[in-house]
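User: I'm putting together a teaching handout on how sequence relates to shape, and I'd like one worked example. Could you take EAL domain-containing protein from Rhizobium alvei, show the sequence you're using, and then write out its predicted structure as tokens right after it?

Assistant: Happy to. First the sequence, then the structure tokens directly below it.
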Amino acid sequence: KAKNGGRRQVSFFETSLENSVVEQNWLKNALREALDKDEIVPHFQPIVDLSTRETIGFEALARWTHAERGAIGPSDFIPVAEQCGLVSALGERILRKAAAVARHWPSHIMLSVNLSPAQLRDPQLALKIIAILGEAEFPPSRLEVEITENALIADLETARDTLVKLRAAGITIALDDFGTGHSTMQHLTACRFDKLKIDQRFIRTLTASDESQAIVDAILGLSERFGIRCTAEGIEDLGDAEILFRRGCREGQGYLFGKPSQNTEFCKSTTELGRMRLA
Ligand code: C2E
Ligand code: MG
Ligand code: MG
Ligand code: MG
């Protein structure tokens, strides 16, 4: 009996392993094709001022709709793109497309893009970004790049050099998913950041967990002491927005204000939510 169960487990494991290898290979090939066919595009999610509810910027988030498979999320294809060396090409493509859209926005609206760890290992990254902005006629002062703490681990020297160059060009640097990476505090002193983005897992559990509230308070305190801005990610209801605002958080992002979308509806989010003032 036990033997049977054991065998079944082994074969199940082998099957799922095989599936995942097949799946990864399928993804790799499909991703190459998607890049050739230019099928991956940025969608935009508003970032709002929590006191006025006005949209102050949009984060570009990569979206891929496969002809047969339908929507494939970035959490599935970005890691694959990293593995097969396609993430830099993909990142440049997203930046170019996003800047082409964002240059038509009102000039106070910022554009945020995500940079992957592999991109930050490229010593030419800052030059590439600045060149793309030049071609798109998009001012560097309106661009924010979001990096994760994990992007600083592999090659801190190269990453730091890139961030210094980007800042010198007027680009804003945000530390994304803050509180979930490795050796958080060290990174805060190793590089200069303009903004911390509190990871959505702390926001999701905000009302249910005293620990999450303590962590959020600590991050807000840190950002105040460092004199840098702070954005809360993943705000889904008004209650969370109110708690965050009362605790001193001034910027927010989440489904409450708008989902990522191909049309940038900053006017809608401003007028509809603008009336719901926070206490
Ligand atoms: P991220 O940069 O932390 O982006 C925020 C993620 O949270 C997005 O997921 C967004 O759709 C989702 N989100 C925003 N508000 C809410 C909310 O209220 N509730 C919930 N449940 N989710 C919310 P998405 O678009 O699936 O992207 C996942 C991750 O993939 C991003 O996390 C980012 O790390 C990466 N990514 C996306 N686009 C790009 C890209 O162009 N380049 C790179 N390198 N990474 C990207
Ligand atoms: Mg991000
Ligand atoms: Mg994030
Ligand atoms: Mg995240």
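A couple of points you could highlight for students: Residues 43 and 262 are 5 Å apart (CA to CA). The pocket of magnesium ion (ligand 2) is lined by residues 59, 114, 146, 176 (CB under 6 Å).
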